TrEMBL record:
<dbReference type="InterPro" id="IPR000183">
    <property type="entry name" value="Orn/DAP/Arg_de-COase"/>
</dbReference>
<dbReference type="Pfam" id="PF02784">
    <property type="entry name" value="Orn_Arg_deC_N"/>
</dbReference>
<dbReference type="GO" id="GO:0008836">
    <property type="term" value="F:diaminopimelate decarboxylase activity"/>
</dbReference>
<keyword id="KW-0456">Lyase</keyword>
<dbReference type="InterPro" id="IPR029066">
    <property type="entry name" value="PLP-binding_barrel"/>
</dbReference>
<keyword id="KW-0663">Pyridoxal phosphate</keyword>
<feature type="domain" description="Orn/DAP/Arg decarboxylase 2 N-terminal">
    <location>
        <begin position="55"/>
        <end position="300"/>
    </location>
</feature>
<protein>
    <submittedName>
        <fullName>Diaminopimelate decarboxylase</fullName>
        <ecNumber>4.1.1.20</ecNumber>
    </submittedName>
</protein>
<dbReference type="InterPro" id="IPR009006">
    <property type="entry name" value="Ala_racemase/Decarboxylase_C"/>
</dbReference>
<dbReference type="InterPro" id="IPR022644">
    <property type="entry name" value="De-COase2_N"/>
</dbReference>
């Protein structure tokens, strides 16, 4: 939405975004049915994100696969919708693997990553012919054991690679780390040793390389460098068996203007990555698949959180707006940046603007959903809509103080439940807790 539309909607107490439309009366109806706080998945936006990413990459490199990162938001409805569109399931634990199977995903379309896998996990993934990326050397022995017990089967695996990733000599990993803790290191010889060890067994076939790095800036250049290094290693060590290059996830999605970040577009990333892939595999009869594993870029802007104003409160010279929600619902890392939001007011007779904070129901001092908002004070019974809350909120939301709110989905003019409001019997599951 542009600024003029946002201001007009705020005055009218009306919210409109990508096909979703809500006024005060509609939100009040939803509250009567589902409670005074809830999430809404914008199905149109979710599909749009998938199709934009697919178009950006597949138009430049045809053998392209999207693996949706389950850990970012493993809401079953959302995972099934992305699978229906064509996304593989990218999982990092047996919990997520089993979820993908329960949702009806073809095991051959599951990408099993992650640093901690049991022998049972690995053997099941190999039996199901899932795409298994080895993160550490301890997994090698488990794979060898499976291959020796199943010598009539071709055991296909990928290797997650760890290498120096810098821009202009400067480390670019998240939180300033100089080296990543994930993957098999190339610099100390571990990668080559693993390849030699695995190739000793005739029915093991190393078919791909995986290279996911969490970087601070998520720059296009970091993806160009990473893709080039993966291609170089693959051509040197796996030229006769290579089936995929997996560049991981972490790309920016479409960000709200209020974030004030000049983020690369999907086309920017695709142009850099696909140019490298096309050049490096120009002479290959069949180019390897390019796998991208988006999470945040796929779901962050596809979900909103709506919370009712319960009270307005003054302490010294500050104003606090208490809502039926928590920082856990919208910002699980508890950062202090304000998300884009909108107040839907019962009474649009606005008074003078004033600074206020929006706080949650927990007993933690740091439970701030927003700091330093300059607007007309919300009143009891108004609703506040927080945008861009689709990434990690659902999976990081702890069972803490209150039950988890329901999740609804909006498609065209229909609104339906995709996760019910939690109840006491689910919060304190008697199959787990001893009373």
């Amino acid at each position: 939405m542009n600024k003029l539309v946002e201001e007009e909607n705020a005055i009218q107490g009306y919210y409109s975004q990508d096909g979703m439309k809500f006024d005060y009366r509609k939100l009040n109806e939803l509250e009567n049915s589902y409670g005074s706080s809830f999430y809404i998945v914008n199905v149109h936006k979710l599909r749009e994100n998938y199709l934009k990413i697919k178009q950006a990459f597949k138009s430049r490199y045809d053998n392209f696969i999207i693996g949706y990162s389950y850990k970012t938001n493993y809401l079953p409805y959302l995972c099934k919708e992305l699978s229906r569109l064509g996304a593989y399931a990218e999982v990092v634990s047996r919990l997520e693997y089993d979820l993908a199977i329960k949702l009806g995903e073809d095991p051959k379309r599951i990408i099993f990553n992650g640093p901690l896998k049991s022998r049972e996990d690995i053997h099941l993934a190999l039996k199901n012919e899932s795409i298994l990326n080895v993160d550490s050397l301890y997994e090698v022995e488990m794979i060898k054991d499976y291959a020796l017990k199943n010598q009539n089967s071709v055991v296909k695996i990928g290797l997650r690679v760890n290498f120096d990733l810098t821009e202009n000599g400067e480390p670019i990993l998240q939180d300033g780390y100089e080296i990543s803790r994930f993957g098999i290191c190339i610099e100390n010889g571990n990668l080559q040793s693993a390849i030699i060890e695995l190739k000793k067994i005739a029915n093991i076939k190393i078919i791909g390389l995986h290279g996911h790095f969490s970087t601070t800036k998520r720059s296009v250049e970091s993806y160009r460098i990473k893709t080039k290094k993966l291609c170089m290693i693959a051509k040197q060590s796996l030229a006769d068996s290579l089936e995929f290059i997996d560049i991981g996830g972490g790309i920016y999605g479409e960000l709200p203007a209020s974030f004030q970040i000049n983020a690369p577009t999907f086309d920017d990333y695709a142009e850099a990555v696909c140019e490298v892939m096309n050049r490096e595999f120009m002479d290959f009869e069949r180019k390897p698949a390019l796998i991208l594993e988006p999470g945040v870029a796929m779901v962050a802007n596809a979900i909103i959180f709506i919370a009712k104003v319960i009270e307005t409160k003054s302490v010294a010279d500050q104003s606090f707006i208490l809502v039926d929600g928590s920082v856990h619902n919208i910002k699980p890392t508890m950062h202090k940046n304000n998300l884009p939001m909108q107040i839907i007011r019962r009474n649009n007779d606005l008074k003078a603007k004033k600074m206020f904070n929006i706080v949650g129901y927990t007993c933690m001092e740091k439970d701030y959903l927003a700091h330093g908002i300059n607007d007309a004070l919300p009143n009891k019974g108004d609703y506040i809509i927080f945008e861009n809350v689709g990434a990690y909120t659902i999976v990081f939301n702890p069972p803490f103080i209150k039950v988890r709110p329901p999740i609804l989905a909006a498609e065209n003019n229909d609104i339906f439940v995709v996760r019910r409001k939690e109840e006491f019997k689910q919060f304190f599951n008697e199959e787990l807790y001893i009373f």
